[in-house]
TrEMBL record:
Listed name of the protein: XRE family transcriptional regulator
Pfam families: Cupin_2, HTH_3
Span of domain HTH cro/C1-type: 13-67
SMART domains per UniProt: HTH_XRE
UniProt keyword list: DNA-binding
PROSITE patterns reported for this sequence: HTH_CROC1 (PS50943)
Family matches, as InterPro entries: Cro/C1-type_HTH, Cupin_2, Lambda_DNA-bd_dom_sf, RmlC-like_jellyroll, RmlC_Cupin_sf, TransReg_Diox_bact_type
Keyword DNA-binding part of the UniProt annotation: yes
Length: 178
């Protein structure tokens, strides 16, 4: 099979095994998958069954979905940031599946009381410089440089810029809990 035609690349199992300092025999013993089957899988010479995927994932402390995702997209993805302004913020944004990363600057006195629409995600605001106040339905937080706040982005929230600020904001789908 031509490597360029692979839709799933399970050589990632070899990478995980070696990083864990395990031999084929170690993985075989822990997963119940034969050494021959593992070897063929690591060389992409056979397809994996769901039960095998599950058992192998557990050996490496992963979910079956995580292992499948690694096999599906084991190469890095490069993107270019988009720039835009929203309220008092000048943003640079990079998005990947499940996560949006923002680098923002804002001038003192700015307010954003209706942040952009959110899906079912968490928001993390990490203040790099300046001072901001974030107001949620039942609480208010004033952040200083180096402080971060994580909250459910579905909650009404507002940002008040108390000093010229630089902020890193992450939107993380709740399916990627931490």
């Amino acid at each position: 099979m031509n490597p360029n035609e692979l839709t799933l690349d399970f050589s990632v199992v070899r990478d995980l095994r070696k990083r864990a300092g395990m031999t084929l025999d170690d993985v075989s013993q822990k997963s119940g998958v034969s050494i021959a089957g593992l070897s063929k899988l690591e060389r992409n010479q056979n397809m994996i069954e769901l039960d095998t995927l599950y058992r192998l994932a557990r050996v490496f402390g992963l979910s079956a979905t995580d292992l499948l995702n690694l096999a599906e997209s084991c190469s890095a993805h490069c993107k270019t940031a988009e720039q835009y302004t929203s309220g008092p913020f000048n943003f640079e944004k990079v998005s990947f599946k499940g996560i949006d990363c923002f680098q923002a600057t804002a001038k003192r006195g700015g307010n954003l009381s209706k942040p952009e629409a959110h899906g079912d995600e968490f928001e993390i605001c990490w203040l790099r410089s300046g001072r901001i106040r974030i107001t949620l339905p039942r609480e208010t937080h004033e952040l200083s440089p180096g402080q971060a706040l994580k909250f459910d982005a579905a909650l009404a929230h507002s940002y008040e810029i108390l000093e010229d600020s630089e902020v890193t904001i992450i939107h993380l789908e709740k399916t990627h809990r931490f």
